[in-house]
Records
---
Amino acid sequence: MIRRTEILLIDDDPEDIMLFTNLIEEFDSHINLKIAQNYVDAVDLLFQKHFDEIQSKPHIILLELTISNHKGIQLLKSIKEHSEYRKIPVLVVTKSNNSHDIWNSYDYNVNAYIQKPKSKERYLSLISIMLKFWMEMVSIPDYTWS
Amino acid sequence: MELIEIKPLKSILLVEDNPAHVLITKEAFSEVKLENDNYDIEIIDVRDGIEALKLLSKFKSQGSLPDLILIDINIPLLNGLDLLKKIKSHKHYKRIPSIIITNGSRIHEIEDAYKRYANAFIIKPFRYDDFLEMIQVMKLFWFEYATIPINTNGRLNKNEG
């Protein structure tokens, strides 16, 4: 099944963004990647308009919790409390291994919490497993139908 | 003297009323098991939503909730989506990654499931080989890469990065 998938990456680490962007180009040309590099940009992108008015809604959101002085958890909460946005899978992909972050994320209904591996090889294999699972095996709401 | 290595146990609660599907799922998990897996997987199956809630309550009192819940959408008594809602509105159970699995799906079920905070929604592949691959990737993603909290006694499963 070929579908165009819109992924929103919210991260402020230039190296991680680059790794991710490069790998995605190799992995699948049907991914349309948007990047927000801080809290305000992410909020603007997601909440500036009504859900129905947004032309290209993300199918999957990848979120680094540590953006803008750890505002990621606030963003997760806003997304998962929103009547429509909450149906978008949010994967926290973060350098934080703080147990409060892990518990809070699941309490705020994160779809999965993933710690960024330290080695580049493992980071790359994480991204490919993650994309394989979430793009090929999991069904996610497709807004082109609704 | 033989040394027996005791591996940590990951437990999966499988809510599924079709015995054939239970069997196939258990088989698939043992088939994708690798020699060097540093954990064993235990699958506990129950046949309906009410039984699932009873078992969760029992587990909670023993201080060990499952690591993952797999819910078939068409189960008796309390259907999959209603069970999901109960799990995700419970203070302790809500942290357990819960995945809805179905044979076929209507679009509104996908949306409903995510609005009730399903961690993922999977349409069961028809071919056994595809099903095996799905179990393999699911196992890798949740048990090798994701970090899953264990709820009751402050124990936390962390994967080394």
Note: Chain B has one domain: 10-145.
---
Amino acid sequence: MERTLADLQPNEAGRIRCIAGTDGLSQRLAELGFTLGQTVRVVRFAPLGDPMQIHIRGFNIALRRTEARRIVLDPL
Amino acid sequence: MAAAAASSARPSSAVPASVSPVSERRHVVAVIGNPNTGKTTLFNALTGLTQHTGNYPGVTVESAVGEFTVEGTHFLAVDLPGTYSLAPRAPDEMIAVKVLLGLGEGVQAPDVVLCVLDATNLDRNLYLLTQVLEIGRPVVVALTMSDLAHKLGIIIDIAELEKRLGVSVVPVQANKRIGLPALRQALNKAARAPHHFRSLIGFPTAFTHEVDTLAQSFPQTNGHSPLPRFLIERLLIDAGGSIEAELTQQWGAGIRAQTEAARARLAEAGVPVPQVEVDSRYHWITQLVETTIRQPLTTAQTWTDRIDQVVTHKVWGLAVFLVTMAITFQTIFSWAVPVMDGIDALFKAVGTRVGDLLSEGPLRSLVVDGLIGGVGAVIVFVPQIAILFGLIALLEDSGYMARAAFLMDRVMASFGLSGRSFIPLLSSFACAVPGIMSTRSIDNRRDRIATILIAPLMSCSARLPVYVLLISAFIPARTVWGIVGLQGLTLFAMYLIGLTLAPPIAFVLKRTILHGEPVPFLLELPPFKVPAWRVVLFRMYDRSWAFLRRAGTIILATTVLVWALSYYPNQNRVTEEFQARRATASAEERAHLDSEEAGARLRESFLGQAGRLIEPIVQPLGWDWKIGMATLASFPAREVIIAALGTIYNLGSDQKEGSVELRGAMQAERWPDGRPVYTPVVALSLMVFFALCCQCGATLATIKRETGSWGYAVFTFTYMTGLAYLGALAVYQIGSRLV
């Protein structure tokens, strides 16, 4: 089973191996800086369980789990 | 993007500005940047109160437009929507690309592009800049948040950055007016510079080769491709994007086949799109940042982290959220009321004074009831709009708004919207007009339209008087289940109706008329900061003025139209009849004659005739023609029904929802066979109709303004009227069989 960004616990980090898919969503994520080899960290989940706050390249962004599932990780 | 227009736009855009006399020519500045860069604050600081909502020359989408002058040269600045990249996947993103390239009939390419970069977040912001540079227009960079960057220990070598980028880089602090003169100078200088296509990024040869080949496949004019290279690159990179769709439509399906073949070859060569673009750009950016920016290695816990621990906490976060929302709602719902009552009273007093100066007749009625009443009906919305936008500006500028959307997204996502729709919908419980205006913060257009279309279902404050009148007159003041008052329960039910119907309607809309490629929910959580009062005040002024200018005229026109329909055609006969009766009446009778005359006039008017005409339609709802007519009269503004009922029952229009007289008159109203007209079931049917119907000219005018088309206004009116009719029909038909 591949480990994705959606599988991380708060304060866990990983390195991006690839982004699944070639559609608009994967392009948008890449443009934001979710590039190969980049380190990403889960900061927290929203109180209702979704979305999740991600720290990448020095900024914070909220993604839904369905989107985070696209981001396949290698362990740090 | 016709080929002819594209090629004809090129020569003109290639002419340096110095060819035409500079003093007479107006330079166009397009302002672009990521969301949350302080772009709008900078735009406001540059253009001040000259700013208004207008159209970019040749483009029919509204954007903020403003002016400024540098050393006698006149500039027109246009604020483009915030974006992370120039890879268009939706019509409104396509607009930005067309504007920058000057594509399309009458679209003037900007003389200079002002690209706004957030100094605390340069990696991601530079991505957009590398694309903007390739458009080939002169570019100036404004570096915002440089004070915050300094505090975070980020040091930027601006001279080196300018050298590497080949453009001016000006640090600014817009809310403190720092750096603005230097920025204006830089824009003025750049606008006169010759411009050329410029790419700093080294794309793999396989990629540039495929772009060359693809460019050749379009019919050549004078040995050149008819399209800018930037478009060909985007065609190749953005699979399923807007440019692929438009070019295929224009040049035939062969283009798509060739593009797909080229993408397949690139994938085989190990440089698949869109990855090749992103990797090449970020590779270049990483190298640039290494030599121009020093960032502290360890990031200490910031104030933002500490605040976030509270405001996004499972318990405290929700508590802060509820308190914030309660204050917001309370402010627009109750605190605006004294001001609104004041405006109401003022316009009534002015109407009476002016009325005394004019003689009895159509002119007096038009001026007092039509014009002065109409202007009052417009201005009465301003307190709520100003207060709501002041609060929203505070929430947005401080950074809390993004956290509110983060907290509420799960709830809103369950019916196809996002957390950004929450505040507009909550505000609509006070009034749909500011609620709809506040949907501008929803970046996804289809979500925004869906939110606009369901916002009028939220039970607004203008419905409350209608509920109060009918509940106090016809719902027994009984207690049910031991503790709950039946009247209060009914009121609660009325608020619940719209709230329960809105989610499934949004759900259906997102799957039918608003269907499209799912757009990712990407919500940046910017650092918290102290809001700038300039930003807050400007927002209050700007939104109120925008409402007055654009929606105001439509509301005034509707008010005058309804006045005419309720005054003509039979006023002469009524006037004569009552003159005769006044001559013979006793003093006591005379006191009541004015109200009786107004009632007679209304019953004889076009509106009265229409009421009788629609009686067969409203009878299944349990209504008589007078209720039907009062409902018709309240289509421009639902609260009008109370004055309309007052007039119809000869009590005069000066009635309030608490009026004992009006309540008595309604309870005494009988059908010809002696049955009472109003029963609790009829009252419920009428209330349900008002809960669901979009009887509000101001809302419809605002929908038209915000969506740019009458289509959505007509749709909202139609679906809500249909829903209201069916709802009232069900209540009466089922209720009258049960009771």
Note: Chain B touches chain A through 47 residues (CB under 8 Å).
---
Amino acid sequence: MIRLIIITTLVLAIACITPAWCDSALSSLGYGLPQPAANARSAGMGMVSLGMPDTLGLNLLSPASWSGSATTRFGFGGNFSSMYLEDVFGGDASDQAGLTGIGMAIPIGKDRFVGFTVSPYTRMQYEWEVRSSTDLGASTIGQHGIGGFSQIMAALSTPVWDGVRLGLAVRPIIGKVDRHWREKYDDTAVKSAGVSVSDRFQGIGWALSCQWNQPEAWTVGMSLFGPTSAGIERQTVIFSDGYAQYDQKEEPSERYDLPWDFTIGIGRWIGRHRTGFEAQWQGWDGVEKPAVLTDDFTDALRLGVGWEWAPEYRPLDPLWRIFTFRGGLYTQDHYAVNVTGHQARRIALTGGISIPYYTGKSRIDIAIEIGWMGDKDLDKIAERTIGFTFGFNHSEKWFVGRRKRN
Amino acid sequence: MYKQTVNIFLSTFLISVLFFFLGCAEPDGPVGSQVGQNRDGEVMTVEIYADEDTSLAFPPPNTSRSIHLYVGSIDGVTSRALVKFKCPALPFEWSVDSSYVELAYLGGIGETINPTVGVTQLSHIWMELDTIDIDALPDGEELSVFANPSREDSGKVRIYPSVVDWMRMIDSLRSDTTLSDTAIIDSGLTIFLEPGPSNECLVDFCSRSAYDDTTTGGSKPRLFVYITARDSANGELHPDTLEVVASDDLFLLEYDTTAVNDNLTIGSGVSYRTFVRFDCDTIDTTNYHIVVNQATMTIHRKRTVEPWYITRSLIPFTFTGDTVIDFRDTELMKRFNVITAVDTSLNDIGIIVSNVAADWLQGKDANGWLGMLSGTEDINIDRISFHSTSGPVELCPKLTVHYTRFPR
């Protein structure tokens, strides 16, 4: 167990500090690609989570789902994927890795929890170079961007009446986006020019979630994120031939706005199988786009269906019956459109497995996703992805009084 | 058993993930570039013709290290020359039969094919590095008019019998013990070369600094004195030739202020500097950050004056047009080394001035004046003239700026 924790910590630490190389050209649009996974469990079920109660893992996006035994829950996860990009210039491959979230919930009463989660809201990383020709001769234009938004939930999860739970959260938003552009000429007598714009954001919003759960039957969940406005601290560096010609920090009057975000999910037990459906709508049309961005925003929709099967395990049963199996399908729109005016869409097949440990008090989730996003003609890029998401969901009797433990 | 199986599986899985992270593939090339076609920087080109210009010349110092002696007027500048010969060693008894000064003709430009130079002998004692006031030179005896460039031989000036008087004076000075050796040594025969009546005509002779090689066209000014000398041993008379190479020379410059402004001139040692002003207000630095990729100033050569020394340094500065510029000011002596390119077929000279233009556009230098200095200004006398803003628009100095702009 200790070895497992050490290796896991090491892997995640490296994942956090290792630069995740270009993951998607489409992440250059807007604030980056939306990251929909509530945790590794939902990543294996077509991103469905609200209609699928979980008494062990933490739903990073819906505190109302935190329910179960009075133990402290702690979870974190990461993902890595390999992508193949294809456009009119040909094809290229990239790998991506990163942390998908971390959270902790502490019981404070009968079936009541307080906790926090940190998860990515968008992620951006792209890089390309093109050759160009101007009056000054041949040149190479390079663009590179990295960053994204992260959201924090500081939440209270509580039952309000029979079968119904409510989650109330303060939702701070933090983020960082760095964009670089440079043109370098083959003629050494011609000076290169470039600009780097680094934005740091912070803002605060709210989140409301609720879940109605009829054991062994239906579950309906809903989450609502209010619009959030993030202030910006911007550093602009204009450089020529590697020397900074202009370097200025400022707080522009414009703000980065995040839209209304509404998600509804419904799930149903069928024997030992559970199925669910989820729909998420983000109202990006109502967001005032920052002047620094040239893309247009439009409402985005995510639809997903998922399935989970937990075979009952009895002594002498085959070992695989310990595991839980998952599958799903989802489709998600990008909220930013490029020069063609087309809204790129991701379609993905998912699968997953859960491995319980610690006498069933904890769980490791592993999910796999095979996805397609974009069209070579309509979106100027087609991306194919295969990726893995993993999550650790651990529970301990931390912060629980000795009398309750006994 | 289950626990061990799970642990082994998970450890293997995580270690594989670790190696995956360390071996992440990085894309390169243009794939994906069409998604983000929003170009952050926009490359612009602007051509700016000079607004104002002037050349300034100063009272010239003695410049005695030139290989040229220029005499004549061109582009509003008048040149005159002085050549000095020290007295040769004289025999016990002597008489002068004839003498002449020989100057090697290097060429000339101008509107006439027969430039003329007037020669005056001066009884003038002068030292190297003296400041010569042309108007204060005493009148000398006018000698034969020199100079026809169609002659195949060197130009010659016959100055007998004045050489006799000069040599007699030297001889008597030697016997006068009250005179210092310095006075005797410096008592030279001075030839003053003045332009002839033709305007816009420049004649070029070799100076005493020239290579003394007639096969390559170089030949220092020489004084030839044909004498009859008496042998002190036996008293016999015999002819002899005294050959004296010039010991010192100068050429002096005057300028016509009005005419100078029609030409942009650099060169002539420290005497000429040219200033050109460009109005860069056409470039919007209010709404954009500007990076100058390359700025090239094009100037068009006016005269083919040898040698072809091209500007090597530029000075950006503030100039009101009425300010007298002290060129020794250390601030103004800040120079940018530039790259020049001469298009001989078009007589254009291109000077890459990217650093200077960048300073203008960023507001570091005040009002867009640019000063040009000759690359040989510490050494030699040479002059190149360019078309100014007084001439045709297509020939006036032009600044072409290629820059990248970023919205503010």
Note: Chain B has a mean pLDDT of 69.
---
Amino acid sequence: MSGIQESIIIRTVVRIMVPFIALFALYVIIHGASGPGGGFQGGVIFGAAIILYAMIYGIEDGKKIMSDKLNRILSSTGLVLYAGTGLLCLVFGGKFLQYNAVPLFPNPAETAAILMDVVEVGIGITVLAVMISLFFDISPPETEGDEMSPEEVEQ
Amino acid sequence: MIWILDISLLLFLVICAIAAITIKDLLSAVVILSAYSLIMAIVWVEMQAVDVAFTEAAVGAGVTTVLFIAALARTDGRSED
């Protein structure tokens, strides 16, 4: 594990690739209504980008980006977005997730497209947070020996 | 012509599945399972199920492999049976 993390090639490639993977994930989420993809797949890809970063730069650096508190907040925010959109449709007299009942825009199809994207983003946020917290929980804690050895050599 | 592709993909699929459950080294089993997922994704595309193929490639070949390897790092990585 430490051999991979010290390689300059892997560190540089990961640093360059992570933003592009994240951008592709956003494309998959937004494009999900009219093609292959959707909230779940996009969330998984976005989570994989941050998991990749945490694998190479260490769990501690990964937790600086996605702390446990942020994970908890995000995984419930996505659920609130999804359920809130569904309940909004109930409030305006439609069925659960019956988008065209909401009088947001004059054109019901436009409203449906916007609310569908909100639902997809909610799914994506929850899946992203849950995937990352799964990785943080399963991955072994970094051993004391690997972390301490450079400092001990310097001392 | 396309049925040759189908047959060879399914053959690789069966070989990967049998190899993944018989091999003793668990890290190799995880990598073979990842290859199984990738071939399965191509088979899904072949069956016109692009959405399922997308999920299979992202979850099966990507995140699940990472989670399995992370879990393996806590064990000695050998199968007992």
Note: Chain A touches chain B at residues 1, 28, 36-38, 40-41, 44-45, 47-48, 51, 55, 131, 134-135, 138-140 (CB under 8 Å).
